[in-house]
Amino acid sequence: MSFRRSVTDPARYDLTGKVAVVTGGTKGLGLAIARLLGAHGATVVVGARTLGDAVARLADEGIEAHGLACDVGSWDDVVALADVALAHGGPDIWVNNAGSAGIYGPAHQVPPETFERLVRTNILGTFHGCRAALPVMLERGSGHVVNLYGRGATKPVPLQSAYASSKAWVRTFTRTVQQEVKGTGVQVHGFNPGLVMTDMLGDVTVAPGYEQKVTALPVVVGLWGQLPDVAAEPVLDLVTGEAGEYRDLTPGRALTRAARSVADGRLRKDRRMPMRGTVLE
Hints:
The model is unreliable at about 1-5 (pLDDT under 50). The chain is an alpha/beta fold. The protein is built from 10 helices and 9 strands. About 40% of the residues are buried. Helix 3 (about 75-85) runs parallel beside helix 4 and helix 4 runs parallel beside helix 5 (about 160-180).
């Protein structure tokens, strides 16, 4: 499904009086989503392991913003984040954006502790966010939950077993919860933003012997990557509508974007996204 991008339409996207929680909301795509929702009137509550200056930056842009240091893998932390939203009248919107990329390499070389850490963030974090937000929304008969998909949500991705399988779980979980809340006034959405040019995408940990397989990543990102502020835009359509899912890189959109990227010279070496590779010891 595609949307008409009219993010400047104030009437269509008026979120005044709404309270939006964004996990992983202090940098990259999460911060862009928080900024976008706040710019359209929502009070924003961001949660992340480290808050940094994100709340102050949002406030400097005229957005009412609050934050809490939060590990989404901890149920107690997510409850505390929900309590911040409740204190301000929400949550009306909850975006489960926090994510971990894992390791590029075969499953048998992924350290168990790395796999477990990814599961805590990508899977437990999504569950915890839904578990915290949905009871409030169901009682009110309204609200929107957005769960972040990624590569692997619809098919296996070799050498990304942890990340890809976690996103397949998120998609199945999301579609299950969609059926559970059908007819309640609460909407649950899946959002696959495609390739987003963030630190998480640029910092790659690789299993020994697989270093050469990631050397093409800057070219791939040059063809299809988007800046976080652009990639965040479809969230507005999700939290003001009823669409079950949004997927960025449909075949038609992928061809159009690749052609535009080549024409704009985004594949030149001096314009490619920097990649920082670390070989797993």
